[in-house]
Amino acid sequence: MTRVRYALMAILLFACSSSLHAEYGYAGMKIGPGIGVIYGADAHYEAPAPIMSLNAFLTIKLWDYLALQPELAYEMKGYQALTYDGVPIKRFHYVSLLLLFKGFFDVEDFKLQPYAGAEVAFLQEAEELTGSFSADVSRYYSWLDVGVVAGFEVFFPLPVEQLYITGDVRGEIGVLNFDSTGFFPPAGSSQDRIYLDKKNLVFYALVGMAYQF
To answer: Is residue 168 within 8 Å of residue 209, measured between CB atoms?
Structure first.
């Protein structure tokens, strides 16, 4: 948890320093469902699983067509493991820090915002669900995940001045192996341990509200 606190302080300081140079900005929250899968050389017997995300964000308008958006999020990721004795669902609960660079285009009253960026995610818990049974399997997975984010967001104005409804679709591609158990290599191998090549891949559809300040 100490790592999470330091990361939160860093992103808040960065957001505050950036806002000093901003034209104006938006603050808000969004929530929505998603689909989680995994990819990699060892991702052979997996299927998508339902997930979700809850995000607080600060959109800092830097220039006419460019904005910076830090986010603090709770993200559920995961997948279904297809095994001979059932289909357990693996769920990973993360606190994530995201930094997005957004195009910012006014089309009539709408704000169109394609974006790309990066995220750092800190694992809080990993669980395996089989029917009504849940087991904590956090010790088998890495505490850190890093990913690339891309998506498209729209701000829709409300009749109340300075309030907007937001719609956001995004994909996040993990670049680190999240499986930290591995296995011992065959005799004579130069490697001490072989780790499975499995990485997170998620898609979210989020809705929320933003206030212009």
So the answer is: no
* CA–CA dist 51, 73 (Å, integer): 13
Asked if residue 117 lies in contact with residue 124, where contact means CB atoms within 8 angstroms, the answer is no
Q: Give the residue carrying structure tokens 């299927």.
A: 47
Residue corresponding to tokens 């990819």 = 39
Whole-angstrom distance, CA of residue 144 vs CA of residue 132 = 28
Q: How far apart are CA 125 and CA 91, in angstroms?
A: 8
Answer left, alpha or beta for residue 3, where phi above 0 means left and psi between -120 and 50 means alpha.
Answer: alpha
Mean pLDDT over residues 104-132, rounded?
93
Using the Cα atoms of residue 22, residue 172, residue 1 and residue 55 in order, give the sign of their dihedral: positive
Residue 192: HSE in the Cβ half-sphere, 13 Å Cα cutoff: 1
Provide the mean pLDDT of the chain: 87
What CATH number does the domain containing 120 carry?
2.40.160.20
Global pTM reads 0.84
Domain that holds residue 47: 2-180+194-212
Contact of 172 with 149, CB cutoff 8 Å: yes
Bin 97: left if φ > 0, else alpha if -120 < ψ < 50, else beta: beta
**Number of other residues whose CB lies within 10 A of the CB of residue 202:** 26
Q: How many domains does the chain have?
A: 1
Domain-embedded: residue 188: no
